[in-house]
Amino acid sequence: MPDQRGIFAFTRIAALTAGLFALAACDVTRPVTASNPGQSTVASPTNQADPRSRRWSEGRLPSYQTSGAQRAATSNAPIRVGLLLPLSGPYAAYGKSLADAAALALFDAQITRQIELLPRDTRATPEGAAAAAVDALSSGATVLIGPVTPSGAIAAARATVGSGTPLLLLTGDRSAAEPGVFAAGHAPQAAATRIIDFAHKQGVREIAGVAPDDAAGRAALAGMQAAAQVRGIRVAGQASVPAQASGDARRATLASALQSLQGNGALFLPFPAEALPTLNADLGAIMSGAAPLLGGPEWDGANLASLPAFARSAYAGYDPRYTGSFRQRYQSAYGKPPARGAALVYDLTATVALAAQSARGAGLGNHDLTLAGGFQGVQGPFQLTRDGVAVRRYAIIGVRNGQLQIVEPANAGGS
User: Fold this and answer.
1) How far is 353 from 108, CA to CA, in rounded Å?
2) Is residue 14 within 8 Å of 90, Cβ to Cβ?
3) For site-directed labelling of 174, which of 48, 268, 288, 332 has its Cα 20 to 30 A away?
4) pTM over 0.90
5) What are the CA-CA distances from residue 55 to residues 108, 232, 350 (Å)?
6) Residue 23: other Cβ atoms inside 10 A
């Protein structure tokens, strides 16, 4: 493990370095299979005949961490996977890129069981999500992945009640989780707990938080509050910043948070990566003592090396060795970079594929997806639990000698 000394030493150090999915228009009525990419409803790789010919730079693909041999499949019937994604309207490119990630996962899984992807358009509305889920079920889907929004997730879950079909949501909103409905996305509270626990070990004894005024931001602040209370860290203050806030209002909020820190304190900023350059400018205008900055997986992909205010920062996120390999893998296969959220779809599709390989019968049950050993994906290790929660383990990513490094690996702390 890299030397952990100095990540929050109260002197200025170098900034982090780090590195979305688009897709051509496509028919969304026919299935795509790993064995028949030519009839895909999503884009096929443009610069190689078969993406299965390439492997991860680490020399292995994500795989289940289980003991003993997998059970042999006892049915040749295909497993049909419904993809509930926005495939029309303003979010069409985003949704179609997630569908590309699902297709890539099938190519990479190299399993013998036939799997078909059934993309269905949610139209980015709760009503559309419910209709897409019902349509996928009527087309024979035995597992569903999506939708991408909390409101769509709730609508899809209600529409599929009683079907017995596992639903893998692309949201981390655990209020929707229940047996058979898995909140498989990023859970802001869990990531906040991870980074606050780490900060406490580094000597941080007080914290202030500023977050976007949205569901994810509020969840992250709640996680910060709860984790700080458990660790005996003083919460100096917390605030939410509306999307429409002026620059002056945003800077005033940040300044107030920094001024509330008395010593050995840190500022928690669970903003998305694209917002960090603006925050860097804001902080550069108001920071005097350079408090350490903390974040979560929202920071993944930010070019922190170019952001001086983030020179003393660390975040709970996904191991860049694996996420970087995924981005390269997708870029090589499709000639385009992946969209945010694509790695999650890739991991969930790979989970389904590997579960199908060992499943008995023509469908998948909850027991096939909740294996005790969990799953090692491109976003790190995670386990789907019987109560519908995805337990993730986040790495701690910090700066050493001006370079992004893993300060604590994902298996050193829970979600």
Assistant:
1) 10
2) no
3) 268
4) no
5) 8, 45, 14
6) 23
